[in-house]
């Protein structure tokens, strides 16, 4: 799950047309950073959902971080009012996003494990921790370890600079 940070502020300050442009810009950042077999959609409002089939939590976290960085590095450019052909003035509106990930690698029906709910919880955690970050959870089946020590170490290394 990816949610645009402070999106209401963009809509309130710049209008819904610019808000829609921001949504399209972020959708492009997502599409540009996923594989053809991955599934991305607008989940509602300013939220997007992405399904990464056959991806472990480390790969998913890398993809989410790449998307987050792409959004952060791609401001929305807005032409200011009272522009003339001789004096074109634009403003760059910074955009950021928070992401919550969940991963399921078990054998049971993944729908029963509330994957979306777990990702949403992680998204709220990312927002609470200051926004513009990625948080993740792994849904484990009872009696099975879903994340190896190597995966945990790789994730810790990936996000060390964000702490």
Folded structure, characterized:
With 163 residues, the protein is an alpha+beta fold. The chain has a single domain, classed as Alpha-Beta Plaits, CATH 3.30.70. The protein is 40% helix and 22% strand. The protein is built from five helices and seven strands; from the N terminus they run βααββαβββαβα. The strands form two sheets. A five-stranded mixed beta sheet has the order 2-3-1-6-7. A hairpin with a 2-residue loop joins strand 2 (39-44) and strand 3 (47-51). The longest helix is centred in the N-terminal third of the chain and has 16 residues, at 16-31. The protein is elongated and about 60 Å long. The mean pLDDT is 87.
Topology:
Blueprint: E1 2-4, H1 7-14, H2 16-31, E2 39-44, E3 47-51, H3 57-72, E4 76-79, E5 90-93, E6 97-104, H4 115-128, E7 134-139, H5 149-159
Helix pairs in contact: 1-2, 3-5
The domain count comes to: 1
Oligomer: single chain
Q: Helix count, per DSSP?
A: 5
Number of strands: 7
CATH architecture label name: 2-Layer Sandwich
N- to C-terminal distance = 21 Å
Low-confidence stretches: none
Widest sheet: strand ordering? 2-3-1-6-7
How much helical structure, as a percent, in the residues? 25-40%
Query: Secondary-structure element sequence?
Result: EHHEEHEEEHEH
Which structural class matches the secondary elements? alpha+beta
Shape, per Cα inertia axes: elongated
Gyration radius, rounded: 18 Å
> CATH superfamily, called what?
Reverse transcriptase/Diguanylate cyclase domain
Q: What composes the largest sheet?
A: 5 strands, mixed
The first-level CATH class is given as Alpha Beta
Strand content: 15-25%
- Predict the CATH topology: Alpha-Beta Plaits
- Averaging pLDDT over every residue, what do you get? 87
